Amino acid sequence: MNYYDELGVRRDATEAEIKAAYRKQAKKAHPDSGGNPEKFEKLSKAYGCLIRSDRRAYYDSTGRDEVPPLDDVAATALQQVFMLLDAALQNAGDYVLKDPMAQVLEALGQNRKQTLSRQAAAVKAADRFAKFAKQVHGHEGKSNRLRPMFLAREDEARRAAAAMERELAIYAAATDLVRDHDFELDELPKSSQTMNYPTRDNTNYLLHDFGVLGEPRTRSWVK
User: Fold this and answer.
1) Share of the chain above pLDDT 70, in %
2) 176-194 burial, b if ≥16 CB within 10 A, otherwise e?
3) Cβ neighbours of residue 58 closer than 8 Å, sequence gap 6 or more
4) Which of 66, 73, 159, 206 is deepest in the core (most CB within 10 A)?
């Protein structure tokens, strides 16, 4: 079975085109609408593969519908998500009443925002060093010994900015991973529903724990 043929889309179809094709055909093939269950299953399988960029790329290159082996970015993202989720659950106490996945997403979003800010600062610094390198000259034909130093600093700043691309790729992969999962919240026992259970600002604790907002702070319960 060719997934592209199954959905009736080109191999270079966009995500929006794949979604539209699936919805159109799935509506007709859905068993609840009198459609063909086998056809609906095939459509769902094709859609599940092609809508995910990593699975689609693996399918295009190998012809196999498998979860691709974890690369370094994906493996790091998986570890990061688990650590953030574990911290959120530890902070939740006996009853998980607030969606920990939303807290992890918020922590990742703030971390990504700070990385983008640091990257922009590094690019700005590199541009300044490049500008200075053009402005400094040797006096009266003497050797320009300062220009190479400015150029070296420019190269250092650009390398730092480029290295942050990996961090951003990890945040993107981690965000996709979180959005692929749901977490079932606890229900308080009826006898306990009138009690005031202490809660914590879990997102801020996650950010402190993982260095997003600086050094970890002393934890305290707040109502």
Assistant:
1) 83
2) ebbeeeeeeeeeeeeeeee
3) 64, 66, 68
4) 206
State pLDDT tens for residues 62-101. 788 876 566 778 888 999 999 999 999 988 888 888 899 9
**Cα of 3 vs its chain's centroid, Å:** 26
Q: What is the DSSP string of 15-76?
A: HHHHHHHHHHHHHHH-GGGT--HHHHHHHHHHHHHHTSHHHHHHHHHHS--SPPPP-HHHHH
Using the 8-state DSSP alphabet, how is residue 185 labeled? P
Q: Closest by alpha carbon to 29, among 18, 37, 20?
A: 37
DSSP state of 130: H
H-run or E-run covering 195: none
